[in-house]
Specification:
The protein is mainly α and 206 residues long. It has one domain. 78% of the residues lie in helices and 0% in strands. It has ten helices and no strands. It has helices at residues 3-18, 22-31, 35-57, 62-66, 68-94, 108-120, 123-131, 144-171, 173-176, 179-204. Helix 1 (3-18) packs parallel to helix 8 (144-171). The chain starts with a helix and ends with a helix. It is found in: Cell membrane.
Length: 206
């Protein structure tokens, strides 16, 4: 594969990673429970990207492009999941339990699962692989190996960016755990996640 194509694709991935989305807020929120939880969420998101790449290579994700109903179903599922995460966190926070998914010190497995589901249930990621990835393949030949290579680049760049967020949050955990700061970030991130869920659901019904 042409090196210039790979570099161009990597640059695009960097720009996309820097654009805040559901995964960004999930990683930040889980990072309040410690660096390990944040890194686990980042790993889950990266794994989701690889699964999307595999689905595209297998021709499954093309359904999202060709079927409005399939796209709507995935979008609704993703919106409901984000809404559930946000509302659940807000309710538990209101009861005095500070947590990303129930309590600080959340298990990495739970954080990884949340990151994975958030990515897999985001049809925009699938459409990115369906519509954008082929443009960087020689002759637009969507082979398993080439698609997985680009998927690995996308996942790796996303993971590095999210890992930096997790590590930075872990280093600043003392400051982030100050009552006012913690409350602002906790409620803010939960509210944003819930809002993203509502926005996704509303757009899916149009």
């Amino acid at each position: 594969m042409d090196l210039s194509l790979l570099l161009g694709f990597a640059g695009l991935c960097v720009l996309l990673a820097l654009t805040p989305g559901p995964d960004t807020f999930l990683v930040l929120r889980f990072s309040l429970g410690g660096t390990r939880a944040g890194l686990a969420a980042a790993t889950g998101s990266a794994t989701g990207s690889l699964l999307w790449a595999l689905a595209v290579a297998a021709g499954l994700a093309t359904l999202l492009e060709q079927s409005a109903e399939a796209y709507r179903v995935v979008k609704i599922a993703g919106g409901l999941y984000l809404l559930w995460l946000g509302v659940r966190a807000l309710i538990r926070r209101g009861r005095g339990v500070g947590d990303v998914d129930g309590a600080y010190g959340v298990r990495p497995a739970a954080a990884m699962r949340a990151g994975l589901l958030s990515n897999v249930l985001n049809p925009k990621v699938g459409l990115f692989f369906v519509a954008i990835v082929p443009q960087f393949l020689p002759g637009h030949d969507v082979t398993l190996g080439a698609t997985l290579l680009l998927g690995a680049i996308f996942a790796a760049i996303g993971f590095v960016y999210f890992a930096l967020i997790a590590v930075a949050a872990g280093k600043a955990i003392g400051w982030l755990r100050r009552p006012r700061v913690e409350q602002a970030i906790d409620r803010g991130s939960a509210g944003i996640i819930a809002t993203l869920g509502v926005t996704t659901l509303v757009s899916a019904t149009r």
